[in-house]
């Protein structure tokens, strides 16, 4: 398999919830994160995620490079590698995958050709309370043969591993769990803060 | 920009108020003074204060400031009914006030009635062309509508008049960064460094932008500004320390190690990072070591 054209993506509940909570913790800015996992046959298993940045300086290289090296180092000892990128836009009604996100996606693609880019779907997030849908509140983008990121329309190609992920997410939201999320930005401002968020799901 | 003491003071008050320990008015005043965006908390606690007649009258003339603060927070949280109620109270107390007129226009903005809001702001500006807050609303509206180039345009016009508004320069720089217009962002930070040379944040942001643009000269300049950030912060800025290491690594890669680059500063930076991590983040010390090793080998 040479591109992401055929595989499907399964995101573990914890990884999924972390990304959504991160976005909710910083409602007034864009946020992003890294997806960690492995390729298993024709499925990319996204088993972990690390929330990265929430400042308006998301387009700058230095913090991103530090994060990429550090996170790759950490997870390689667990047999996981960076398999994708998550992005949430600043504005509610902005459904486009911007150039910053595409560029970061391109970089990750160089190391993993089935890389996925997930974009937070704000409308789905807003409707979560009412709709009780089990589909992930993110849009999937993969790189096609034309070397650009295209949205994958078929909803079966991105699923959460646990079907109850959205219910658990709603639960976390109602107890304001998003306030506990630490991202890489927080770590750089205060290194005693842990971007691994180990205590989050205890 | 908020200092570290102010930040911790705010955090303390916020925790206190959130856990029912009182101090709502002090918290709200601090948020107001520092011009921070904490709309959901301001709405929650401000509204509680306003709905309590005893507490409200204890505020005296500050009551009206609170109505304004809560109205603004309500608009940010899309609680338009609450905002309308607050604005009505203010309209009654201060009929014909321009300040209340501004809130009315912001309500139109929150509703998405962009053209009406634009008309309202234009007429308010007719009487007072030098109103900074209203001029800024134009930028905010353009941004909210997704008209980023329009926002840049308005912001540049704003800066021609209010060229000492440092927050506006930062805002412009950040918009440029989001559009990957790094050279323009660099220009903004140069302006900021010229007018506020002792603020380390400007040096740091400038270094980050230069590194992002890339190229040997920019990397060397970025290294200098990371160094000045370290100097201005007494060595306490983790991002700048990492920045030095990144620059050294990138310069070595570009010149294939053939230049006489000052490696001492990056050794010092690495040592400083190791010391800080040992003290504050001991479980990440070995990870730091392998990260630094990767950068040197790159």
TrEMBL record, chain A:
GO cellular component: EMC complex
Pfam families according to UniProt: UPF0172 (PF03665)
InterPro entries to which the protein is assigned, alphabetical: EMC8/9, MPN
Source species, domain of life: Eukaryota
Family: Belongs to the EMC8/EMC9 family.
Protein name listed in UniProt: MPN domain-containing protein
Source organism of this protein record: Deinandra increscens subsp. villosa
Family matches, as PANTHER family: ER MEMBRANE PROTEIN COMPLEX, ER MEMBRANE PROTEIN COMPLEX SUBUNIT 8_9 HOMOLOG
UniProtKB/TrEMBL annotation, chain B:
GO cellular component: EMC complex
Keyword presence, Repeat: yes
Domain of life (superkingdom): Eukaryota
Ranges for domain EMC2 TPR-like: 100-209
Membrane topology category: Peripheral membrane protein
Subcellular location: Endoplasmic reticulum membrane
InterPro entries in UniProt: EMC2-like, TPR-like_helical_dom_sf, TPR_EMC2
The keyword Disulfide bond is annotated on this UniProt entry: no
Keywords: Endoplasmic reticulum, Membrane, Repeat, TPR repeat
Record note on quaternary structure: Component of the ER membrane protein complex (EMC).
Role, per record: Part of the endoplasmic reticulum membrane protein complex (EMC) that enables the energy-independent insertion into endoplasmic reticulum membranes of newly synthesized membrane proteins.
Recorded family membership: Belongs to the EMC2 family.
Protein name: ER membrane protein complex subunit 2
The organism of origin for this protein: Deinandra increscens subsp. villosa
Lineage: Eukaryota, Viridiplantae, Streptophyta, Embryophyta, Tracheophyta
